[in-house]
Structures are given as C-alpha cells and as structure tokens.
Amino acid sequence: MTDAPAHVHEFDWPDRVVIGTVGPPGARTFYLQARAGTQIVSIALEKQQSALLAQKIDEILDQLSTLEGNRHSVPTSTPVELVDNDPLEAVQEQFRAGTIGIGWDPTTAQVIIEAHPLLLDDADEDAVDDVAEAESEMLRVKIPVGTARAFTQRTREIVDAGRPLCTLCGYPMDPDGHICIIPEY
Fold this sequence. Notes:
Number of strands: 7
Distance between the termini: 47 Å
Shape: globular
Helix content: 10-25%
Order of helices and strands: EEEEHEEHEH
C-alpha cells in the first residue's frame, strides 16, 4: 500500500488545460500543462499517453452525452469559443507521468485527470531521495465538459502533427531521410 502523495498540484477550475509539445517532430516532448492564475504545472508525457488520454476522455464524454437526455450538457463536438491553439506557456517540468487516471465528478460535471510520477525501478543510491520526493507528488485537474472536448481535439491534433508515416513500412519518416524497412512475409 502506498502513502498518499505529500504534495498534490490541484486545479479544480483551471484557467487553461492543454497538451502541447516542445521540440521538432521526431524529437518532441509532450507536456500536460495546467494553469490557474499564476500557478502553472507542466508534466511530461509520452506521445502514446497523450493520445490515449484524449481517446478515453472522449469515450467518457460520448457515454455521458447519451445518458438521460444529456443532463450534464456534454457537447458532441468542440465548442468554438473553447478552442485553444496557443503554444505552451513557460515549461518547467514538474515530473514525468507514469500512471494516469481518469474519472468523472457528477456533482460539478467535470472530467478528472490524475497523474502520478513515473516510478523508477532501477534507482541508484544517489537518486533514491530524488525519486522519493518525485513520487510524493501528483497532479489533479478537473475539467468542465466543454473544455474537455476542446482538450481532446487539441490533443489529437498535436499527436497527429508529428512526422508523416511511410506508406510502405508504416514507420515515421524523418525530414532528413528515411530507410524503409519492409517486413518479410
């Protein structure tokens, strides 16, 4: 049994929640960034975590929109006024996400995202204190349903904006060249 995190970066009604990237395609680092007033928290994610997060949130919203006449007013598409295409704000990585949980708060009609740091199995003795400190925090963000739709749209666009895939082998192509590896059958 693990202890509760010592420090929770909590955003109950954030001003902004987005996924964005730093770096060129092929070498991008994905970040989940939340801001409320002057408090900004950025956590690093894998591209696949970002894509899966958007997919799962959309699944929750789609399911909720069909319940009892959509009593939570879940939009079926992204409200235009909530589209956020601005770049990330100043990025200072808080931690790299390991486990990410998604939930629903029916009392406030918000999607909940909880991210916990990546656990290091092979931490050397010098890093044990740093690992323990990182593992003692988490990020919790609550997003209203319209903002959640805008979040998933932006996330899908960011994920899809990477390197184009080779039509022959399906692997990403680098701007400076590509060696096509076609599997043998």
